[in-house]
Amino acid sequence: MLSAFVRAFRTPDLRRKLLFTISIMVIFRVGSFIPTPGVDYGNVQQCVASMDGTNDLLGLVNLFSGGALLQLSVFALGIMPYITASIITQLLRVVIPRFEALHKEGQQGTAQLTQYTRYMTIGLAILQSTTVITVARNNLLFPECPVPLIPDDSVTTIVLMVITMTAGTALIMWLGELISERGIGNGMSLLIFTSIAATFPGAMWSIAGGENGLTNFVIVMLVILLVIALVVFVEQSQRRIPVQYAKRMVGRKMYGGSSTYIPIKINMAGIIPVIFASSLLAIPGLAAQFGDQTAGWVIWLSTYVAAPEAPLHIALYLVLIIFFAYFYTAITFNPDEVADNMKKYGGFIPGIRAGRPTAEYLDYVISRITAPGSVYLAFVALIPLLVFIWLGVGANIPFGGASILIVVGVGLETVKQIESQLQQRHYEGFLR
Amino acid sequence: MSESAGAAAAGAEGAGDGSRPGDRTSRRGIFGRIALFVRQVFAELKKVVRPTRSELITYTTVVLVFVAVVMAFVTVIDLGIGLATGWIFGG
């Protein structure tokens, strides 16, 4: 296995890609430390140090920015606006016919869609940076911390901060795209991966240092290991729908005649439903932040909806995950399109007629296979949460189901990409 | 009645790959339809190709190693940058 890593670095092409990716990750981390102008660095450090555990409501956002949010750094927003924007663009395909048309147009249409996503990212970044700065200015980021984070809150400073954070997000977006283009793996997910990985050691430390730390630490590690194995297991399982290609002559050459299969993963939606469900569930908490802290609805919201251990919160989380799993699968896999393509190239599923019956069959299989898939997703997202609440080590530490799913998913994907690059050169990879 | 019919339908559905989605489901009651759906789900799950034991172990280790390497790398980088920023901005 180690020799595979060495070989990966020996291959000039792959080495360049790996080094490129690594250096972009370094740039990303550097930006997460540089404070935004207008912020009192010393005070922020003092506040971060004085705080135990993470802020309940901003926990997830902070996690996805690799702890940069609480530092109010240049990259405070992290990649979150870009994720949200791309999810929204994908969801809008259902609503706006033009988006769907663009998607079907092929490469040029996709480029146009990416362009829209970028504009939306900037808009969202302005919105979110304004929110974050408002929260910081009203001293809600660290409610117990007495020193001001932003000493000079004149309009010029605030505008400068908003512009800086928005520019930071734009830069992250570009970095992510650069990784996708010239590096290894999907840039966006790799950057989230980096941010989450950055918060892991601290969280481990805080668990190990807490009361009966060693037992808790061992239990948490075991749970994580089990969840990782489970995720790998499910991600690697496929329902294979056999497809037979008819033989045909094109000119003087014979094509087709082969039999393959359409691999259908149990969980086709990936981690998007979890990300989306958690971001939606973060909204009531954020709303409560802005309200009067003693008002009835604020108290109700924060005890029953925003708190991660509240039964209503857990139920909502489950329902949202299952809903988005179906929804996102429906968006990403279009049975009609697949059936059409198969027909075009002379493929058919044995026993099913081409065209509409094929589409119906695919739809049948997918709607049946997504049911356990969505339940699995909800299960993986919840189990760590429940275990951590039971252990009393805090639900918002970064080992929640969402982050484990992301980490394992991205890890698998990236390793497989490196693997395929190695195999192109007839090397044995990591996965023998 | 709907139970046995559902079982028969599911049996037929599970028998061959070329089963058609049940279009007679509209005549059942809501519970019958749910039961049928669950049976169909299990029928599909049986056709899922699962990774072998050794595959599972390799992939899990590879993911673990990858995550550990990235984590260690990022931690080291973070320590360095943290010291540097503290030195520059801490004053």
Summarize the helices and strands and which ones pair or pack.
The complex is a heterodimer of chains A (432) and B (91).
Chain A: H1 2-10, H2 12-31, H3 41-50, H4 59-64, H5 68-71, H6 80-95, H7 97-104, H8 107-137, H9 155-182, H10 187-209, H11 213-236, E1 238-245, E2 248-250, E3 253-255, E4 259-265, H12 272-290, H13 296-306, H14 311-332, H15 335-344, E5 347-348, H16 356-391, H17 401-424
Antiparallel strand pairs in A: 1-4, 1-5, 2-3
Helix pairs in contact in A: 2-9, 6-7, 6-8, 7-8, 8-9, 9-10, 10-11, 10-17, 11-16, 11-17, 12-13, 12-14, 14-16, 15-16, 16-17
Chain B: H1 2-15, H2 30-46, E1 48-49, H3 53-90
Structure description:
The complex is a heterodimer of chains A (432) and B (91). Helices cover 70% and strands 5% of the residues of chain A. Chain A is mostly helical. Chain A has a 3-stranded antiparallel sheet, sandwiched between helices. Chain A has a two-stranded antiparallel sheet with strand order 2-3. In chain A, strand 2 and strand 3 form a beta hairpin. In chain A, helix 6 (80-95) crosses helix 8 (107-137), helix 11 packs across helix 17 (401-424) and helix 15 (335-344) crosses helix 16. The longest helix of chain A is centred in the C-terminal third of the chain and has 36 residues, at 356-391. The model of chain A is unreliable at 53-57 (pLDDT under 50). Chain B has 2 domains: 3-45, no CATH class; 51-91. Chain B is mainly α and 91 residues long. The longest helix of chain B has 38 residues, at 53-90. Chain B has 3 helices and 1 strand; from the N terminus they run H-H-E-H. In chain B, helix 1 (2-15) runs parallel beside helix 2 (30-46). Classes of the chains: A mainly alpha (432), B mainly alpha (91).
